[in-house]
Amino acid sequence: MVDTSKVAMSLLFVGLDGSGKTTLLRTLSKNLSHEILPTAGLEIHYISMDNFTAPVLVYDCSGQGRHRENWKTFHEYVDGIGFVIDLDDDDRLQFVKRALEDTIKDEQVQKKQLPIYLFLNKSDLLNRMEYQTVKQYLDFDNLKKKSKGAISWKEVSAFNFNEKELQECFQWLKDNRLNNKKFI
Q1: Residue 39 annotated as binding site
Q2: Whole-prediction pTM
Q3: pLDDT in tens, 136-171
Q4: Do the annotations mark residue 88 as ligand-binding?
Q5: Any known ligand binding at 80?
Q6: 152 appears as a binding residue in the annotation
Q7: Is 22 annotated as contributing to ligand binding?
Q8: Could you state, in order of their start, the residue ranges of all structural domains in the chain?
């Protein structure tokens, strides 16, 4: 793991492959200098924001099937989880639901009461799923009951996402992490 003594907090960014995790993070860190390819295992991002005294460390994990099992190895070391959902991929919503439930039920996530922020990505696309459809299919209300930590969500577009929105999302994770700090 990376030395976290000089960061405001550390986050794990997960979601199925192609959901836009890396694009979202690179857009926010202003690092779009080259083509974005599928993440092979892990990328590490340091994101600086006005309302944080130190950078936020983000572990960007591959969402490919064979790599999803690795997500849980980070739960012990992070302060919160960003879970990215592709609103343009209704064919794999069942896999999103399973991955999200597995994340919420994870022993470390439960023990630390990690806050989870759901980024409903690609909201700018015309043929995307509606928020209410996703909320109903994933049974958000039941997920909130199963989770010992806080859960929130926001519709976003990686290409139209701005720093103010990111700060709001990360501030929510920070606030909810601090509320559960006694468990970390």
Answers
A1: yes
A2: 0.85
A3: 898 888 888 888 777 887 766 666 666 677 778 888
A4: no
A5: no
A6: no
A7: yes
A8: 9-163
